[in-house]
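Let us work through a complete example step by step.
Step 1: write down the sequence.
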Amino acid sequence: MQFDYPIDAQTVDTFLRNSEYRFVDALKLVLEKINKDRENYAHLSCIYNVYSRSDKQRGSELKEPRKIRAKMNNYCADNNLDFYKPFDMPDIVALTITVPFPSDVNVVSAHFDELIDGRAFFAVYAKGSVNPFVKTKYGSDKSQDGYYACHYCLRKRDDALEPIVEVQIKTLLHDAWGVKNHDLTYKNSTFVDSSTRIQFNELGDALAKLDSLSNRLRDKIIRDSAAGELKKQRVLDRFLKATMNQRGFIIEQKELLDEIYQIKTERESDQFRLSHVKAIRDRCISHFQADPRQSCVLLLHLAMASQMSQIKLTAMERIDMWRMYGNTAVNQIESAVFLHFTQFMFGDTLLAIDAAEEALEINLTAKQEYPDPKTYFRYQMALSTSLSYYHAEILDTHYGSRSKEKSLRYVSDTYDAMRSLGYINDDIEQNPVDAIISLLDKKPSDTICNVIENTLFVTIMTAEDARPIRTALRRLYDLRALFAKDDKEFAQLRFDLHEHHARKKIFDIETDEAFEQTHLTSW
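Step 2: predict the structure and record it as tokens.
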């Protein structure tokens, strides 16, 4: 199909009337794919928004007919052509994907490159990148005149008569600026002189510099926390691996755990199969009615191994069902405890705090229903020590304004529960932290070792000078020796994590002290 130049309005209107459904279907195909992938792949969590013309203009998905006609005619005139093929026009329908940071543009671009390599779509008009900071294999870098983005032109088949869907990937700042620039320069009914346009472009360049600066600041923050996060993830991974051998699993569930463990290996070796993960998910769910706890454990393992948002959501839904239909006090508290642990494993300490605090309330309500009176204090000890750790972890974050006070209070609550269980004598004349740490000399059980480790972490994170941190470090050495009797590797990973926080805290304290002394001396 082709239009003879010059192209009249009736020709364009007839073409759009007959072909609109094909363009809309092609647009929906790309939109549904990227939204589905956002649910399944953690790296696409950087996408802030996805929208099309209908979302912004509240009308048709298609570009305005007069603009389409003008663009076709201009192209023919500029290239001395006698005709134009309408299915060659790239932006009759388009999607915009916005991300917070410039480096996120490359993350989304890499995902589209993989989709094209896998023949989910076919790319046309790929020009690559002139800007060294924009990386694309099948897209086009659009860094010019104050505009910075990466564009893809996609077809669902390798056919010249298939509609093209243009995908624009840009930062939030440049998306907002694009709207302003478009309204002020293209929609403005008055003449905009070249000097004014230059100023617009300069503002766009200034936004690009602001974007770049924000990206560098984010990278610095990530680098500063990367070592600690990596050590934490290794501890969590090793802990999950250890639970694969826990009691209570039937043979089929143990076989499932083995398959789940292989998922992580497949993900790391680029042999990841979405259908395989979903099949394992369904098998995990099949155990729910008979054994909700083990089913939730299996789903947690699968979510961590696959790192898929959809599997995480399934795990959370099943935990909620477990809590909702639990008909005994023990079921209620077990599911509540498992929820806060799962949130922490998923990396959301704030939600873990909310879940653990709710579990404390459930434990109090169920106190009279427990067959063994000590059950209440065991859960009280486990939840309080977890909360003390969680609050210590977020101490230096935006949400940690009262975390020091809460962390120390939960350590004190842990102490009270331990005293009720007979782990600590009533007549100890020490503060709660020292009382719990003193148990190290008695070679306590693994449960008490975990409590001591949490307490040492709280001591490190809440310290105001280096002395108690160094004392806590020495006790961490002692604790590692106790843990190492059962699992040397796991003991070392835990020690590395908490030693990292201790060393960093000492460095921060000593740096602040040195700065204050230098500042005072200069005055």
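Step 3: interpret the result. Residues 194-243 form the longest helix (50 residues).
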